[in-house]
Design goal:
Layout lengths: L1 H20 L3 H29 L1 E4 L2 E10 L7 E7 L7 H11 L8 E6 L13 H17 L1 E11 L1 H12 L6 E5 L16 E6 L7 H18 L6 E6 L12 H7 L9 E5 L7 E2 L2 E2 L10 E7 L2 E7 L3 E6 L10 E5 L2 E6 L5 H9 L10 E6 L5
Parallel strand pairs: 3-4, 3-5, 5-6, 6-7, 7-8, 13-15
Antiparallel strand pairs: 1-2, 2-4, 9-12, 10-11, 11-14, 12-13, 14-17, 15-16
Helix pairs in contact: 2-4, 2-8
Length: 380
Amino acid sequence: MRNLIFWMLMLFCVETAVAQHGLSVKQASRMQDELIGLHHQHIKKTRSAEMDRRAVQIENLTMPFWYKVYGDRPESGRSLFISLHGGGGAPAAVNDQQWQNQQRLYEPAEGVYLVPRAPTNTWNLWHQQHIDAFFTRLIENMVVFEGVNPNRVYVLGYSAGGDGVYQIGPRMADRWAAASMMAGHPNDARPDSLRNTPFSIHVGALDSAYKRNQVAAEWGKTLDELQRRDPRGYSHFTKIYAGKGHWMDREDRVAISWMAKYTRDPFPHKIVWLQDAETHPRFYWLAVRGDSVRGRSRIVAERDGQTISIQSSSVPEVVVLLNDEMLDLDRKVTVRYQGQVVYSGKPKRSASVIRRTLNERGDVTSIFSAEIPISIPDSQ
């Protein structure tokens, strides 16, 4: 009995010390590896059935999917190309036909080519709020079951699928290594968040319905201007196909090899985060909570060595997420807002931050071990 009491006291002392001083880099790394292993085991146990039936269900909606694997698996993991079909506001049979057609449109030299079937038959079938959760789940599944590299995930789409890429490309920009839009219309989408996500545009010069050709050229010019102001960001490629209408005779297939040149950096040095009407609580190494989760809000931040600089924010609090790949958490970290120091200290590595950032999206290459909440003075 005395031995049991002794070990319980020892465990309490260890946990108290960790709470006071934080995890060491070795403890954090070991915990992260253990949690990733448990996470993968859980996914395999709970999602094998949906992989077998090729359909994901979330609440009352179902997303069937088809995929084919091409080429040999690289040592770093396979690429994943998520390809969105056209159709939109049409009978289910029309969208089913478009889904089947999309399965034949593109063939990567290497990777998993996955074509989901939209859960609804509405005009905005690829950029409704539920789509984000479906894509997050599909990516998580393909990482576990097909050995996909989370840093080599791409999205592309044709017609209504192109509408979706215009929207979901920026909205989930921190998930994609690159994105390509074919023959779609952006509606109210804006490209600001694509700072670290290469984006290509492919539209026929004669595709005048909804002014797709005109709007595509305008988006290309907008990306030109964004890159002119920020030369290290906004990689893009715009192609308006002379003599082509809504169907580009598959000349747009060049998008596959163009995207495959890029690999995502999950910890970019500069972030431009413009929220969509459909919001997210996290973008790369920034997070927002509570009242700070606002549609159309905007945050710009950079990191340089041990210093994080928040250049602008329209929300009252920004959470800076950190790990030892980004900087040295055993040394002082400084956070500035518009040049003013708002934090200076050594952030503690925390088991709860590791666990939460893994569970949020199952992205094993984008896990953080420390966080710094920053109150923004006079945010608008």
